Amino acid sequence: MDAGPIGAHKLSRWQLFTYGQLVVPMAVIGLPLAIYIPPFYSGTLGLSLTAVGFVMMLARLSDVVIDPFIGRWSDRTHTRWGRRRPWIVAGVIVMAISSIMLFVPQMEVSNAYLLIWIAAIYLGYTLIEIPYGAWGAELSEDYHERNRITGSRQIFMLIGLLIAITVPIVASVMTGGGGEKSAASREAMAWLGWLTAGMLPICLILLLSSIGEPKVGYSTPISFTDGMRIAMRNGPLRIVLLATILGALAGSINAGVAVLFFEKVAQLGPSSSILIFVLFFAGVLGSPFWVNIGGRIGKHKGIGVAGFISLFAFAFVPVIIYLVKPAYPGAVFPAMLVITLIQGFTIGAAPILGQSILADVCDLDTIKSGEQRTAFLFAFLAMVRKIFEAVGVGIALPILGWVGFNPQSSTNSSVSLFTLTAMYCLVPLVLWVISTTVIWQYPITHERQARLRAALDRRILRRAARLE
Questions:
Q1: What is the pTM of this model?
Q2: Within this chain, do residues 251 and 170 fall inside the same structural domain, yes or no?
Q3: Are 189 and 269 members of one domain?
Q4: Is residue 5 part of a domain?
Q5: For 149-191, how does the pLDDT look when each residue is reduced to its tens digit (9 = 90+)?
Q6: In terms of residue numbers, what domain contains 428?
């Protein structure tokens, strides 16, 4: 199925649905990889927690290294089925098999077993994620339509995260645990594994049967070195890159200590899982709003407005902990719930409008480089994001250890608890403010993007005329 030239038509609601829904199984398995695999393989299956952490780090590093290669190879793939679809099909096969092997182990596990299958599932994820993101960026040349495409993807991503949170609870109840079994039990992990493996081929068929790939109209391959040099001279890309680095650091530091903060500082107990669910649910409700706002005031300003609203609310966390909690401890959860609702409503803005911005940056890069290399730029940005996400965790946890914080103790010092609060809120807050300020300077408006597309279309026509 051939979609024809980029931007030849506006995607129907069904096409938006079938494009976005592929991320549901990816989100269903993606969240457990981060929060359930360590307790599952250490607590339930008996491996050393230290060894599990080391294995996961090795697997993640292998994933980071391969990102740019997958992007570059996808850009230069030419088959009768397109450039992106063969890679996505391969990724679905790899991910479906490895999700079963990782979450429903059929034999006695070892460190080597974990390394093989977690590396495989990361590989499958990358084989899908990079070509899939590039495909979405190429589906339209229109400034507003790109917001609709990335908005669809983000809504389904949040739905997948909600499913990932809910499934272990349902599995515990359905298997006789009454909701008391660990979220990392064999039963819960098996449900996640089989659900992912079952959903992936169904979602793939829906995608392939409804969405075609645009024709490549303008592309002259250049060397990797020349390509990187041109990319680093791309001013808008540098802005996106810096904002991504700061945002990844902030998000990683915040997420890496969030559970510890809820348990040791806010002392919310089981109620913290409600906050996580509310965060993602509010994100689903808010995503269409940010698609619309990005089209009205500009994508970068939409991210800025959402960011500053979210950060204003998040800045009240220390107030709740140090002023409200000592006087009215029962008010901590309602106050945190209000903050979470505000943050959740705005959580979709940056992923939706940021990915749409990157599609516009790719137009400029094509003009400057002569090669249509959307997947490579998506992969390069993903690699940078993953590196600084790892750096964030590598900063936060050692600092907590250095000040004497003990996650197994109920009597940590005031200094260590303040440091935990700083890692959860204050440090990310500063980084997010800088990141939001940086993206506010992004120069490609709706009008400039239209001029870029017109210039690129003229080059495509001239090239076609020379080849005739």
A1: 0.81
A2: no
A3: no
A4: no
A5: 999 998 999 999 889 888 877 877 776 655 445 566 788 888 8
A6: 222-468
Asked if residue 245 lies in contact with residue 388, where contact means CB atoms within 8 angstroms, the answer is yes
Instruction: Tell me the two tokens of residue 454.
Output: 């017109």
User: Measured between alpha carbons, how far is residue 380 from residues 3, 195, 277, 399, 406 in Å?
Assistant: 26, 31, 31, 29, 37
- Which CATH number is 432's domain given? 1.20.1250.20
* CA distance linking residue 7 with residue 18, whole number of Å: 18
Is 9 inside a domain boundary?
A: no
pLDDT digits (tens, 9 = 90+) for 376-399: 888 888 888 888 887 887 788 788
Q: How far is CA 60 from CA 33, 53, 163, 367, 399, in A?
A: 11, 11, 24, 33, 22
What does the chain come to in residues?
A: 468
Query: By the 8 A CB rule, do 315 and 430 touch?
Result: no
Q: Give the helix, strand, coil percentages of the chain, each rounded to 5.
A: 80, 0, 20
Domain assignment present for residue 4? The answer is no
Let me know whether 243 and 130 are in one domain.
Answer: no
Q: How big is the chain by its Cα radius of gyration, in Å?
A: 23
CB 450 within 8 A of CB 143: yes
Number of domains in the chain: 2
Residue 402: CB partners within 8 Å, gap ≥ 6? none
Sign, CA torsion 281/285/291/294:
negative
451 pLDDT exceeds 90? Answer: no
Give yes or no: residues 228 and 145 share one domain.
no
Buried-exposed string 57-90: b where 16+ CB fall within 10 A, e elsewhere: eebbeebbebbbebbbbbbebeeeebbbbbbbbe
Whether residues 173 and 227 share a domain: the answer is: no
Mean residue pLDDT across the chain: 85
Q: Which residue has the tokens 């993602």?
A: 280
